Amino acid sequence: MTEAPSSAAPWREPLARARHAHDKAGLEDYLQLATIRPDGTPANRTVVFRGFLEHPDRLLCAADTRSEKVEQLHRNPAVELCWYFPRSREQFRVRGTATVIEAGHPDAAMLVTRDTVWLGLSGSVRVQFAWPDPGGLREDPAVFDIPAPAKASPPAEFCLIVVEPERVDHLQLRPFPHERHVYERDGAGVWAVTAVNP
Amino acid sequence: MTEAPSSAAPWREPLARARHAHDKAGLEDYLQLATIRPDGTPANRTVVFRGFLEHPDRLLCAADTRSEKVEQLHRNPAVELCWYFPRSREQFRVRGTATVIEAGHPDAAMLVTRDTVWLGLSGSVRVQFAWPDPGGLREDPAVFDIPAPAKASPPAEFCLIVVEPERVDHLQLRPFPHERHVYERDGAGVWAVTAVNP
């Protein structure tokens, strides 16, 4: 179990417990990212959690720069993640702001994080960044039968989505009545928690 | 297995197969609903699928009229549902428009559907509509220890969310390269499907 650091935000510990309860089933890292389309309607898709950054607590996902979600985040960085854990019947809703880290980003530390996440990806994930344009008319299967880009350096198509949470809503459906806690971060970065009705 | 009617939209059959592959695990009916908050940011939460309406194909969920999602849908009916199936590694993204069916709705047939969905709910779900205001400061556990509202007639707090899809994006991660099909409905209600790059 990857425990939350003792200095971490208070919602990290219940989230670590929920993920741990799902890691044997391989269900711990799938969550849904909602964003805003250019026409103002909501978009929603599954993403894979790729780890935390600390001080402040942020969540990492990988993305293709050619994907609609990256285009949407460049225009509007507001997001809500929804992470449902079916075995423990609990949900974390993470509201916040996303930053896209692409090649050439001015923050050198973030580029190191981008390299590190890339290094951790399997070949079958890395190869997808060399596939034809996502969402374009389906090309011949042979076009996809190519080697994965090397581990040494991520291609320009690879980027990180870094979500900085402002509010986390934790709902537990197993207790009856259900439990619900809302964590909110103030301007100084301090988290407060409130018990609310489910 | 609940098969899709032969006259149903073409995405209904692959969705029925995915749900069937998850029903023994109890994972077939949980999906994520993205909406727009009054401040323009996205909201995202897990909802429970409660069945289909036919002609045209629409998806049903139950909701509490006091919940933020119902308030959001009254202001802006645009939604995207994201339905991820972990065992078969496939995802359906359903973009469309939601209608809220509350007591007193002018369409009598929709009120019958509301009664029918209410009848199918367990007591532990029905009682939640009599609990204190969702999201309010947590009240004493004793306040929640009340009988469930009767099956005979739904309380005013109970409503349906009816989603009418315009576009369904079906991604299959098990084949390699992955498969992706986009279904779109034209103005006459006819669905067309296009194979696109994953």
Structure description:
Two copies of one chain form a homodimer. In chain A, strand 6 (158-172) and strand 7 form a beta hairpin. The model of chain A has no long low-confidence stretch (mean pLDDT 96). Chain A has a domain at 12-103 and 156-196: Pnp Oxidase, Chain A (Roll), CATH 2.30.110.10. Chain A has helices at residues 12-20, 68-75, 108-119, 123-126, and strands at 30-36, 42-53, 58-64, 78-85, 90-101, 158-172, 179-185, 191-196. The longest helix of chain A is centred in the middle third of the chain and has 12 residues, at 108-119. Chain A has four helices and eight strands, in the order αβββαββααβββ. In chain A, 30% of the residues are buried. Chain A is globular, with a radius of gyration of 18 Å. Chain A has a six-stranded antiparallel barrel. With 198 residues, chain A is an alpha+beta fold. At the A-B interface, strand 1, strand 2, strand 4, strand 5 and strand 8 of A face strand 1, strand 2, strand 5, strand 6 and strand 9 of B.
Give the oligomeric state: homodimer
Tell me, what is the CATH class of one domain in chain A? Mainly Beta
Weakly predicted, low-confidence segments of chain A: none
Question: At the third CATH level, what is the topology name of one domain in chain A?
Answer: Pnp Oxidase, Chain A
Distance between the termini of chain A: 28 Å
Strand order of the largest sheet of chain A: 1-2-3-6-5-4
CATH homology superfamily of one domain in chain A: Electron Transport, Fmn-binding Protein, Chain A
Largest interface: A-B, 48 and 47 residues
What is the alpha-carbon Rg of chain A in Å?
18 Å
CATH architecture of one domain in chain A: Roll
The major β-sheet of chain A equals: 6 strands, antiparallel, barrel
- On the 0 to 100 scale, the average pLDDT of chain A is 96
Shape type of chain A: globular
Count the helices of chain A. How many? Answer: 4
Bin the strand percentage of chain A: 35-45%
